[in-house]
Amino acid sequence: MGVFSKSDKRSSTNTTTIIPEGTCIIGGINAKGTVVIDGKFEGVILEAEVISIGLSGEVIGDIKVNNLIVNGLFDGKIDCNKIHILSKGKVIGEIKYNELEIEKNGQFEGTGIKKNSNLKSRYNEIENKLNKILLSPSAINHDKS
Description:
Blueprint lengths: L15 E4 L4 E7 L3 E4 L2 E14 L4 E13 L2 E13 L4 E8 L1 E4 L4 E8 L8 H13 L1 H8 L1
Parallel strand pairs: 1-3, 2-4, 3-4, 4-5, 5-6, 6-7, 6-8, 7-9
């Protein structure tokens, strides 16, 4: 019998990919299990169950994942179910999420959209009305008198 037999069945959902501190990877990862990043990664990560960016971890790119835990730095676009930004975590960019939790001192700078949200902003509508009032000729003539 060889080293690998047909009876050697491993679940791909139980796998863990680790990018250790001091390692820099540029490219793409398609992982069904967990991805732990303590080094640097630039690129795309798809379909992972969990991505954990450690304190020394730095990710620049696009992520599509079920759960994201950030204690290092993420810069880019995120599409996920749950995002948890820990107290030393920093997220810069665009996020689409179902659940978002930011611990005290955790940082998020960018735009966030909650998936399937019924909330709709009317700010642009009001801003357009104000601009029409402020820029109308009657408002300008009023100032000259």
